[in-house]
Amino acid sequence: MAVTSKQIAELAGVSRGTVDRALHNRGRVKPEVAERIRRIADELGYQPHPAGQALVLARREFKFGVYVQSVATPTMQMVLAGAEKAAAELKAFGVTTLIKTYPTIDKAAEMLAVDEFLEAGCQAIALTPVTEPDVVDRINGLSESGIPVVVFNGDLPDSRRLCYVGMDNYVGGQIAGVMMGYMFSDGGKVLPITAHLTNYAHYIRAKGFMEVLQGDFPKVELLPLQACFDNDTFAYEITKTALSEHPDIAGVFSASNGTQGVCRAIEEAGRTGQIRVFTFDDNPKNVEDLKAGRISLLFGQGAEYQGYRPLYILYDYVAKGLSPTESSEYIEPSVVTKYNLREAGRAPVIMR
């Protein structure tokens, strides 16, 4: 016999309206009461009637906020496109999405965007997080007040975010490190470059790369890690200086943005094809350099999906009361060469 919301209400000692609000995340319910109601519903195997649920959802309206940083970079343009696609699709389900962007990484801009989302009445937020304690505290505060937050592209694992969508950046760096290590197992100098040392995704990706080389490939000489701040001009100067000081550089690892600057410096030195360049993201500029032989190997991380998926996680949680099955939806990196370019941009593989 099907369990009813009335039975749940009686067992929880609350009204049917409170049960409805708790199970469908509409209206305010004390967290401990909502948790008790959900626990009773799970124990009894409660399932809302599909037809009734569809009718309820069709009559409801939702408002979500999405914040995407670093949109001046080609990869984050792909992430933004994914968010815009999901927002357009969810309009049919009564979801209004406010999308705010910022060209670089800036904590104040992110905090302001969150304030504006709350002022607009957003019930849930998805964002690419700045790696700062204040942002962790803000996410924790939002969670405590009943506003779920999904982070994407970069994680804040110590926060109370509902879910993270993106690559396991440490593992991604390790994969690149193993492949470059085998390439230079007999020795060679490698220059690692990342965008921001204070950005969790950028730093941890470079860390994974360097630790693999240092631990498993002792003959590889790893030069000091440099930061280009998502700037091709800075990456160009870093690479040009390194080449003048170490003309025998064999490989360059570009953990995020700035790869075009790296390729330009190598090309000016007449070393294109001789110095192996590994980088992340199958964005149009990187694909062009891969075709031309300026990049040896690149790793895709499902950039568009990273922007697309968070809105659906929030919709399932807010509208249907469905929590993510995992705290992180990791996207497995894809290895792209000039021989399998047809696979670039394909649907990502999700690691469970």
TrEMBL record:
<feature type="domain" description="HTH lacI-type">
    <location>
        <begin position="3"/>
        <end position="57"/>
    </location>
</feature>
<dbReference type="InterPro" id="IPR000843">
    <property type="entry name" value="HTH_LacI"/>
</dbReference>
<protein>
    <submittedName>
        <fullName>LacI family DNA-binding transcriptional regulator</fullName>
    </submittedName>
</protein>
<dbReference type="InterPro" id="IPR050555">
    <property type="entry name" value="Bact_Solute-Bind_Prot2"/>
</dbReference>
<keyword id="KW-0238">DNA-binding</keyword>
<dbReference type="InterPro" id="IPR025997">
    <property type="entry name" value="SBP_2_dom"/>
</dbReference>
<dbReference type="GO" id="GO:0003677">
    <property type="term" value="F:DNA binding"/>
</dbReference>
<dbReference type="Pfam" id="PF13407">
    <property type="entry name" value="Peripla_BP_4"/>
</dbReference>
<dbReference type="InterPro" id="IPR010982">
    <property type="entry name" value="Lambda_DNA-bd_dom_sf"/>
</dbReference>
<dbReference type="InterPro" id="IPR028082">
    <property type="entry name" value="Peripla_BP_I"/>
</dbReference>
<comment type="similarity">
    <text>Belongs to the bacterial solute-binding protein 2 family.</text>
</comment>
<dbReference type="Pfam" id="PF00356">
    <property type="entry name" value="LacI"/>
</dbReference>
